[in-house]
Amino acid sequence: MQHDKPLAGIRVVEHAAGVAGAWAGRLLSAMGADVVMVEPPSLCPLRNEAPLFRQGGSALFAYLAADKRSVICDLETETDRAALDALLSSSHILIDDTPLADREGLGLDEAAIASRHPDLVHLSVLPFGASGPKADWKGAEINLVHAGGEGYLLPNGLSVDLFPDRPPLKIGGHFAEMQGGAAAALAALAALWSGQGQYVDASIQDANVAVGAFALQRHGDGSVEHRHTRSFRFGGVIECRDGYVELLTLEERQWKALVELMGSPEWALDEALDDATERSARGQDINRHIREWARHHDVEELVARAQKLGVPMARYNTPEQILEGAHENARGIFQTLAMPGVGDVKVQTAPFRFGDEPLRLGAAAPKPGADQALLDARFAATKREATA
Amino acid sequence: MKPLAGIRIADFTVHAAGPFCTHMLSQLGAECIKIESAHRPDIFRKPHTVYGRAGPATFDQVASNKLSVRLNLKHPEGVALAKRLVGIADVAAESFRAGVMKRLGLGYEALRAVKRDIVMVSVSSSGQTGPDSHYAGYAPLFGAWGGLGHLTGYEDGPPVEMRHVMDHSVGMNAALATVAALHKRRRSGEGSHVDVAAREVASSLVGEALTASSTGIAMRRAGNIDPQRAPHGLYASREGDCWLSIAVSTDAEWRALAEAMGEPQLARDPRYGTAEARIAVRGELDEMVEAWTRQIDAEDAARRLQKAGVPAHVSWRAADIAEDPHMRARGAVVPVRETDGRERMAVGFPARFSGSDAPGIERGTPGLGEHEDYVYGELLGMGRAERERLIETEVIY
């Protein structure tokens, strides 16, 4: 825990089996909160989730649990429930993603926590929230990205041009669950700011509907979005000689710069194309020209020239390119952590920073029960107080 | 009171990512003063044709609930007035290209000089430092830089561009970091400069793939395939272009799915008894599941599968979300009334609070400069003559 990190001094207890709850905890730990994972005797299931390292162990867990501590706690037993209570009495936030039906049996229901820990922020993170007709529904990543509305709109651009009849897509990785995690962490910190202990009911579906907000607004405007039609009229994913770039020109000066980038070809000098509406109407034709032109260029050369001219263009980076990226490394977004049994791995520390320096993580993901003494000591201390 | 009641934001953000950050904070109760000028209104306020029709398609949601003032930052007196606003704010938010605020005389140090403990949040494509910090970018470029685009798409197809969800994800993270910085201020009395690089938000969303890749594992886009689950995907229903998402993680879920499909013998078939076995015949299973889903109503099937303990949900359109009783019951979608009396549906805050007043949207889209009496008059105590002079000289413009 670095004392200059924004959340220094804040303790979080995380009881999470899913990515959303764990990501909420991870965002808080990156910002300096002391996050203690409470694992069941069968251990956190994320320890076995793909992608897996060749030597065994989960890269997902290595990423999500970095800089956390671990205690093992069997909440089916009264003793361990009391131990958890002792830990919670010195904590500010409890993150829990236990399905509603199982909470009471583990002493984790809203009423029980509120009665024992009135000052605690009790953050519930569930696929469809803890209230409403679907509160007991299960949701995996693919269900949630589609329950939030964005899945139906994917893919778009070149991909849907090539495969118009295929089923819609999920976003790579755990996009939807991580939206839930970030929104939940925000809600918990806001509740903590209010100074009032309370129950916070975060929903992964709600978070995805929130970040997909414009679809709902367009619906209200009478404009129905569909993956077949929401592509940009021109630009988008463009194939070059050695990879793909993204190209998007929204402003007049950017279009003019694009024409210059392409060497001012005759078709682009047509005066009618000075009008944005006309360009939009002729988008398909323009894109045919752009795609034909780009095939003769290498990505790196094109992006460098484009950005110099003020044309918004980016390389579709592979993970390897990001890990080796000059910009990423100049900003120090990765930290090398030693994972027992795996060796050195790189972990992105956080999606934000405070000042010029990146946030640094204190330790790699913990071994199961690595901090068991923390739980036992606190429980013992409480027992002593009770005896006294 | 709402959780962030009492917090005031001087909001210089434009486009989507930055405004979504202050939109979230505003829904949580912060008072958000949106700063624009007639010279340079937020580009999203203006009609544009990027979606193939000339209309301001995206402004209302993120602008709602905010107060609006006109302020011309190109004018030296405008910069001075901006500093007065920052002087009465807790947070100053901006989303210009890196370096623009500094050139305007409104960099972090300049703002600290007028408000010692200000929390400044800067949202940009590539961050405030580093060789690409001057790069221009929009959501699809953030996704491309950050690897999210490369890892999304059909196995045999090209990468996929990220859209507004990417912008808004950046805004959500920026809002989180801003509240964290407020906690630091409360504890230490110190402000912060929060630096949110959109491409780093994108890469954080595939952080596990980057970590795996750092040990030499090749990570590729995989469509709807999950390496540890089958059946797993989007399945066509009997209604055209209506898809059912199903994700089977456990053997019990598989057995429940087989029962629901009316094929109880599959539940007992050892060829499909374990996840490993099912993954090995993934394509075969997908065909069996889709042969079933093609005959059924997707919503009804989702309900039945959920009842049997199988994660399933229909791939929803915006209309499904707008009309859903669950969404409405949670306040996840809310009606908003505009000043012209028109009502529209908008997205609410994605969590409920037991102890604070419910977050949400209380006002619609502000007209440009609609709240100057309150902001310049009441908050800054400017008299009529001073305001008229500033309007005359195009400082308030």
TrEMBL record, chain A:
GO function term, MF aspect, one: transferase activity
Classification via InterPro entries: CoA-transferase_III, CoA-Trfase_fam_III, CoA-Trfase_III_dom3_sf, CoA-Trfase_III_dom_1_sf
Coiled-coil intervals, chain numbering: none
Domain of life from the UniProt record: Bacteria
Keyword Translocase annotated: no
First and last residue of the signal peptide: none
Keyword set, alphabetical order: Transferase
PANTHER family named in the record: FATTY ACYL-COA TRANSFERASE RV3272-RELATED, SUCCINYL-COA--D-CITRAMALATE COA-TRANSFERASE
Annotated protein name in UniProt: CoA transferase
Organism: Jiella avicenniae
Species lineage: Bacteria, Pseudomonadati, Pseudomonadota, Alphaproteobacteria, Hyphomicrobiales
From TrEMBL, chain B:
SUPFAM superfamilies per UniProt: CoA-transferase family III (CaiB/BaiF) (SSF89796)
Entry keyword set: Transferase
Keyword Manganese found: no
InterPro entries, sorted: CoA-transferase_III_domain (IPR050483), CoA-Trfase_fam_III (IPR003673), CoA-Trfase_III_dom3_sf (IPR044855), CoA-Trfase_III_dom_1_sf (IPR023606)
Record's keyword annotation contains Transferase: yes
Gene Ontology MF terms: CoA-transferase activity
Source species, domain of life: Bacteria
Protein name: CoA transferase
